[in-house]
Amino acid sequence: MALDTAPPATTVGPAPPARTVEPPEPRHFSFGRALAWTFMVIVIVLSLFPFYWMLRTALSSNNALYAGSDSLLPVQPSWGGFQRVFGLQTGQEAIDAGGAGQPINFWRYLFNSVVVSTLVTAGQVFFSAMAAYAFARLEWKHREKWFAFFLAGLMIPAIFTLLPNFVLIKQLGLVDTLLGIALPSMLMTPFAVFFLRQFFLGISKEVEEAALIDGASKVRVFFRLILPMSTAPIATLGILTYISTWNEYFWALMVSYTDKSRVLTVALGVFKSQTPQTGPDWAGLMAATLVAALPMLLLFMVFAKRIVNSIGFSGIK
Amino acid sequence: MATTTAPTGRRRDDTRLALLFILPALIGFVVFMVWPTVRGIYLSFTKFNLLTPPEFNGLDNYIRMVQDPVFWNSLRVTVYYVIVNIALQTILALVIAVMMQRLTRRTWLRGAVLTPYLVSNVVAAMVFLWILDYQLGIGNTLIAAIGLDRIAFLSSEAWVIPTIALINVWRHVGYTALLIFAGLQTIPETMYEAGRMDGASEPRMFRSITVPLLRPVLALVLIITVVGSFQVFDTVAVTTRGGPVDSSRVLQYYIYDVAFGRFQFGYASAMSVALLLVLVVITFIQYRVTRAETSDLN
Description:
Chain A is an all-alpha fold. Chain A is built from 14 helices and no strands. Chain A has a single domain (1-19, 107-317), classed as Orthogonal Bundle (MetI-like fold).
C-alpha cells in the first residue's frame, strides 16, 4: 500500500558493481566550486535542521517555549514531553505542563507499527520471492503471459484500490485489526516480484543444474540455493518495504479506529488533534514526532550505504 | 523480456510446482488489486453507504460530479499543488544531482540529502507545522528578526498550497535527486572530457551534454513524481484538513471526506475513477511528449 511519491522506481540493484574505485575528483580551487559547495551546505542544513529542531523542542518545557521561541538550545530542559508521550505523567501533571491530560501511550503504537511492518515485510518479500522464482526459473505454460498480467498491476495507482479494499476488509471483519492493515500488501507487490525476478535471472544456471543432477528437488533448490544466494537484494527490498510500511498513513487511517490497531503515524495525528485549550503542547508533539521518526532514522544509520545505493533505475531499464 | 529457454529434456514441466509457488502472490494480486479495481469502477455507478448493499444508479454520481463546484475546486487546487510541487522539486533535484556528480560521490553526502525521505509525511507535516507556526515557529521568528511581516503559512488562502508543496519538496527532493544522480552515472565521462578539450564551460556542458542525455531518466522521474504528487493527502490531513475555506481541499482529501465523513462511497468512487483517468491521460501524454522510451545516447 505504498502511497509514497515514488517507490516503484526504486531499484534495488544487485550490489552495485565496484564503485570502490572512484574517479579522481578535481581538486583545484575555483570560484564555481566554492559556490557549488556553498549551495550543497545550504541544502544539507535545510535537510537536517528540522530534525535538530524536533529534538530541541522535545527537550524543552512546553510552557517556556513562548518566551524562548528564538533560543537555539532547549528552553528549560525537561523530559516532560517524552513523559507525556509514554503516559508517565498523571493527567493533572500533564495539564500543568501544557499537555492535553488525556491518557496516551506510545509504547502501544510503537508495538503496533512494529507488528504491521514486520508482517508486511516478511510476507511480501517471501511470497514475492516464491512467485519471482516461478517466473524466472520454472518451466511452465503461459509463464510470460502470467508475468505480463502481474506487471500490469504496476499501472494501478495505489490510491484507486484504497476505497474498495476498505470495503473488502470491512466485509472480512478485519476493520480495526493489525491484520486488516497488513493484509492487502502482505502477499505481494508487482514491484517486488519484478525486482526479485530480475535478480534471479542473473544467477548462474550451472550451480542450479548441478544441484538438480545431484537429485535435489526444485523446492529444495529454491530454499537451499536461490534464497541464500540472494540475501543482499532480499535484505535491500526488505528494508525499503519496512520503511514504506512504517511511514504509511492513509490506509492505516482508514482501517484503525482505536488504540487496539493504531499505528504511530495515525497516533501522531490523533495526538495532534487533542490540542489543549491553552495552545498546542509543542514539546509533547515534537517528542511524539521524534519517537515516530527515530526507529527509521536508526535503521537508516545502520544501512545507509545499502539504502542510498538502492535508489536508481538499474532494474527498470 | 520473453526469455524462452530451449527445453532440454527431462523434468522440464514444472506447471504444478509453479502454480503452487505463485499461488500466494496470485491471491494477493487478484483479491487486493484486480478485484478492487473492478469493484471501484462498479461502485462508481451505485449509491452505497457501506451499511446497505450498493444500489445501481447509473450515471447519477458522474452527473453530480460534473455539477459539483467543490469537486472542480479541488481539482483546480490539486493541479495548482502539482505544478508548484513538481516544478520546485524537479529543478532543485536536478541541481543537487549535478552538484553531487561534479563535487563528490561520497555516500555521506547522498545520505544526508536523503534523510528527510526516511520519515513519514505525517512527521514532516508535524515538524513544519511547528517551524512555521505564526507566533512561536522559528521560521516566523527569523522572518520577524530580519524585519519582515510574519507569514500565516498554513492559515492563509494564498500561502497554504505553496507551503504544503514546500513541505513535500523537503521530504522528496533528496529521493528525486538520487534518481537523477543514478541517471547521470550512465553518461560516459568521456563525453565531458571531450567537451573540456573543446573548451566548453560547465554550464555549457550541462546544457549540451547532461540535459539531452538525461532526458529518458528525467521523463521517467517526471511520470513517477507527477503521479505521486496528484495523490497528495497526508500533509493536508495533518496540517489543514482542507482549510482555510476550501483552499487546500485537494481531490484526494475531498474523496476521503465524502467517503468517511458522509458515507457516500458511490460518489467517492466516481471521483476516484475521475482521478484515475486523469493520471492515465497525464502518464500517456508525458510518455509521448518526452519520448521516454528512446535515448539520445547511441
